[in-house]
Design brief:
The structure is a single chain. By secondary structure, the chain is α+β, with helices and mostly antiparallel strands. The protein is built from seven helices and eight strands; from the N terminus they run ααααβαααβββββββ. A four-stranded mixed β-sheet has the order 2-1-8-7. Strands 3-4-5-6 form a four-stranded antiparallel β-sheet. The radius of gyration is 32 Å and the shape is globular. The N and C termini lie far apart (109 Å).
């Protein structure tokens, strides 16, 4: 083949390659696989509030229903409240109320609910290492200008929170909730104040 013809053929082949790239039919791009749905995340505050944590567990449904009958629900959902919550489980609440000779329905509709729940709240976060034998803590319940307290009885195997009229065992090592700490209890703490289980209505 003559040199000129050879050069001409090379030019034609190169031009054909370029045209194929610019005007040819492109194979469709593969459809990207859908990303898995994100797991449920923290609240809009960027962390799990105490209310988020309680709502995520079926063992606190009774406590949540009692909260709904008070003005404490929004308090539990506030990430700026750094507190300790002793959270009695469903069975723990039922057990204590049975010992008191009352029912959940009567208690839920009584004037005592808010006071009893405030007795389960400490005004600052307390780590499990601070729940030492003999320590006492102020609660968020005040009666006649007197702050009601709870104390701790700790052994090598158990941590018990002692209220005035009832005690309960701690059944968890503490769950972080924004700046708060939640401990599960196997009973309801009853403060040493005059309580009425009469209807609040």
């Amino acid at each position: 083949m003559r040199p000129f013809a050879a050069c001409f053929m090379v030019a034609v082949l190169q031009l054909g390659h370029v045209l194929a790239q610019t005007t040819g039919t492109h194979a469709p791009a593969p459809t990207p696989a859908h990303a898995p749905a994100p797991a449920p995340g923290p609240s809009a505050y960027g962390c799990y509030t105490a209310l988020n944590v309680l709502e995520a567990s079926s063992q606190y449904t009774t406590l949540l229903s009692l909260l709904d009958s008070t003005d404490l629900t929004s308090y539990f959902d506030n990430p700026n409240h750094f507190i300790t919550i002793f959270a009695p489980t469903n069975s723990g609440i039922q057990s204590t109320l049975s010992e008191l000779g009352t029912t959940l329905a009567k208690f839920a509709n009584s004037t005592a609910v808010t006071s009893v729940l405030e007795y389960h709240l400490l005004p600052s976060p307390v780590l499990v290492t601070a729940l030492q034998n003999g320590n006492s803590f102020n609660t968020m319940l005040t009666q006649n200008s007197q702050v009601q307290t709870v104390s701790v009885n700790r052994t090598s195997t158990h941590i018990t929170v002692e209220g005035f009229f009832s005690n309960a065992n701690v059944t968890s090592t503490g769950t972080q909730a924004c700046g708060s700490v939640i401990y599960s209890l196997d009973g309801l703490l009853i403060p040493g104040i005059s309580l009425s289980f009469a209807s609040s209505s």
